[in-house]
């Protein structure tokens, strides 16, 4: 059996006087999001067959790893109940179930009541995802959204909880959160158009015929997307519109849908803000005066008159706020480590204490207007995910749940550390490493390096039971907190985007070299992985320094950057220009993107063993990006190393759904990586 060879067909385009040849452009089906071209489907199926054939010799290792992964998952698991209204709510996994079942019971006592059964909703579908689900204020109804093909176009239904009966289907074109009105008679939802753009906030009245009323439509900027939410006190519906760097917020009284929308402040390019409400007071988190954000307040009577409550800080980065009735909860990071601070109206600040040197912590699910017991989530590279309640009155942490690892886990066998590596331009890049305690950096070991580095999304040191399958086999695991994420503050994000985009790729390469020089890996004994924009990272670093890597896995990789940013008909492109640049209007942006776009920069050289994945229904990174990249690599690279490519024909951006089905794909990835290290079953 030979690997598939994609045909080449003449195709060229010219921008800014530069002509680009793209002989694999035909792999994009012109009918997308429908994909029915027989030649395209035949090529994708041929690649899938080649993938299976190449993975067949690793079946024993894959099955061994899958058994390990599954053995670390509690078969019968449940969340810590969360109070909301008159009930306590939680989810539960039953033995063998791929999906959760959602329950509640009265706070005052009484029988458990089924809210939603994901296994029942998923029955008959190869893919299933429960998106938003929101309980009505009177507690009788649940509005929920489902996606059954991975396209992220959700269908919203309204269900009567007591009878378990769906009363109506609201729409099949929604995405994001759902907000109930105060009278439990209507919901506000976000509509996506045929290009998967979040264009409108609509109001649906239960039982009403005809088209749902439009509360807000984004007409000013096609790169902006609309989202809806609710204030912590439940009195306001929050309608936001934004791209990656600019935002604008409007408020609607939850008890009066006829009221005009209250604009908080007109959008200003480069200024982003979000809002919560307590009584007649607004709390605003914004970067208008400091790159690491400040917290301001305003009155409902003058929502655009912002008065600083907490000024911006070079050291403290503010990432989120929640306005509870008796205090303001502030999430942020100091020197790259999470912190949670509570601020009362008399000015007292209390920081929630966490003891480890490197960890991740965040606010958990808190539905009530106030939270005398504040639900938190916590973990580190060696500490399993832990659910705490922080007693605001006494200042103590109460452990509610620690992630169980049924097959066994002894944290004393592992060690984590945080080191700093100097990038080529002098920037200090933090790296978190976890490894077996007896593993020393003696220059002889194996290492897996993970990175993302985009959109201001951090790569935080959290626990993963799955990771043990690598650690137990002597492979250390490192997280590179490269620029493009906001790990060290918002400036760290800005320093990895637009004209500074290549910093992200250079950081990752420099981290790999630095870890080798420090003895954490033998030369050429680093595997690497990333997905989506992290897949772009993988493509860029193997173009730049392929010799560093023993194996690379790129999931749904954003690798055809130039073509995608030139096509404003694609779902996300206009909203992505503030992140990558606009090569349509800017010759400078065109040249820069072309200089690093992984697809455009494939050249005749040896590449490391490579595993690539795609989702046929993926609206974020379209399937043809990885397909074209793989086709070009096959035709261009000079080595005989494995190159395997799998397209999930019934899934989207996240791969297979279901807790065990997802582990099957992870077992394939780990088996591929370990095999390149020479580790067998």
CATH names the topology of the domain at 39-70 and 408-560 and 598-676 as Rossmann fold
Q: What is the tally of beta strands?
A: 39
Q: Give the integer mean of the pLDDT values.
A: 95
Q: Categorize the overall geometry.
A: globular
Low-confidence stretches: none
Strand arrangement across the biggest beta sheet: 32-33-35-34-36-37-38-39
CATH superfamily of the domain at 39-70 and 408-560 and 598-676: Alpha/Beta hydrolase fold, catalytic domain
Which strand-content bin applies to the residues? 25-35%
Helix content: 10-25%
CATH architecture of the domain at 39-70 and 408-560 and 598-676: 3-Layer(aba) Sandwich
Account of the protein in words:
Strand 29 and strand 30 form a beta hairpin. The protein is globular. The chain contains twelve helices and 39 strands. The chain is of the alpha+beta class. Among the domains are: 264 residues, Rossmann fold (3-Layer(aba) Sandwich), CATH 3.40.50.1820; 139 residues, Methylamine Dehydrogenase, Chain H. The chain has an eight-stranded mixed sheet, sandwiched between helices. Strands 3, 4, 5, 6 and 7 form a five-stranded antiparallel sheet that branches. The model has no long low-confidence stretch (mean pLDDT 95). Helix 6 crosses helix 7.
């Amino acid at each position: 059996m030979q690997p598939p060879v994609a045909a080449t067909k003449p195709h060229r385009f010219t921008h800014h006087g530069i002509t680009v040849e793209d002989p694999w452009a035909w792999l994009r089906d012109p009918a997308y999001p429908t994909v029915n071209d027989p030649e395209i489907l035949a090529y994708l199926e041929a690649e899938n067959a080649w993938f299976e054939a190449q993975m067949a010799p690793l079946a024993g290792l894959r099955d061994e790893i899958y058994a390990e992964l599954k053995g670390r998952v509690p078969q019968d698991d449940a969340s810590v109940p969360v109070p909301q209204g008159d009930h306590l709510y939680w989810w539960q996994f039953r033995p063998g179930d791929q999906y959760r079942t959602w329950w509640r019971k009265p706070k005052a006592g009484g029988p458990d009541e089924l809210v939603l059964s994901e296994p029942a909703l998923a029955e008959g579908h190869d893919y299933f995802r429960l998106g938003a689900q929101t309980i009505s204020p009177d507690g009788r109804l649940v509005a929920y959204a489902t996606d059954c093909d991975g396209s992220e176009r959700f269908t919203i239904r309204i269900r009567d909880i007591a009878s378990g009966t769906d009363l109506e289907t609201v729409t099949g074109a929604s995405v994001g959160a759902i907000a109930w009105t105060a009278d439990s008679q209507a919901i506000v939802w976000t509509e996506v158009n045929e290009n998967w753009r979040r264009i409108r906030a609509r109001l649906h009245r239960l039982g009403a015929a005809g088209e749902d009323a439009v509360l807000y439509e984004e007409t000013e900027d096609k790169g902006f997307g609309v989202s809806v939410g609710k204030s912590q006190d439940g009195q306001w519906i929050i309608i936001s519109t934004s791209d990656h760097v600019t935002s604008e917020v409007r408020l609607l009284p939850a008890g009066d849908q006829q009221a005009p929308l209250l604009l908080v402040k007109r959008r200003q390019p480069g200024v982003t803000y979000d809002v919560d409400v307590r009584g007649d007071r607004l709390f605003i988190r914004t970067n208008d005066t400091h790159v690491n954000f400040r917290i301001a307040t305003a009155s409902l009577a003058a929502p655009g008159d912002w008065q600083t409550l907490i000024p911006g800080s070079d050291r403290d980065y503010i990432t989120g706020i929640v306005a509870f009735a008796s205090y303001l909860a502030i999430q942020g990071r100091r020197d790259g480590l999470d912190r949670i601070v509570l601020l009362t109206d008399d000015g007292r600040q209390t920081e929630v204490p966490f003891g480890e040197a490197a960890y991740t912590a965040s606010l958990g699910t808190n539905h009530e207007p106030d939270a005398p017991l504040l639900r938190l989530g916590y973990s580190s590279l060696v500490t399993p995910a832990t659910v705490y309640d922080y007693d605001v009155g006494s200042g103590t942490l109460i452990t509610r749940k620690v992630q169980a690892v049924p097959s066994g886990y002894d944290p004393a066998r592992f060690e984590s550390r945080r080191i700093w590596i100097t990038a080529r331009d002098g920037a200090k890049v933090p790296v978190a490493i976890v490894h077996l305690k007896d593993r020393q950096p003696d220059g002889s070991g194996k290492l897996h390096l993970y990175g993302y580095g985009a959109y201001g999304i951090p790569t935080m040191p959290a626990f993963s039971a799955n990771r043990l399958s690598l650690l137990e086999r002597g492979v250390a695991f490192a997280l590179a907190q490269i620029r493009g994420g906001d790990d060290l503050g918002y400036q760290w994000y800005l320093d990895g985007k637009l004209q500074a985009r290549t910093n992200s790729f250079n950081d990752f390469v420099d981290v790999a070299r630095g870890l080798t020089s420090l003895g954490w890996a033998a030369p050429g004994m680093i595997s690497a992985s990333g997905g989506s924009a992290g897949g772009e990272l993988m493509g860029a670093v193997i173009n730049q320094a392929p010799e560093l890597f023993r194996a690379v896995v790129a999931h749904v990789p954003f690798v055809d950057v130039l073509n995608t940013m030139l096509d404003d008909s694609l779902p996300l492109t206009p909203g992505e220009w503030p992140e990558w640049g606009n090569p349509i209007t800017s010759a400078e942006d065109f040249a820069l993107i072309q200089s690093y776009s992984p697809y455009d920069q494939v050249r005749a050289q040896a590449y490391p063993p490579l595993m690539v994945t795609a989702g046929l229904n993926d609206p974020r990174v379209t399937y043809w990006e990885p397909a074209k990249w793989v086709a070009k690599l096959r035709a261009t690279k000079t080595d005989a190393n494995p190159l395997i490519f799998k397209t999930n024909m019934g899934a989207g951006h996240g791969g297979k759904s279901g807790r065990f089905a997802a582990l099957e794909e992870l077992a394939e990835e780990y088996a591929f990586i370990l095999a390149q290290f020479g580790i067998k079953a």
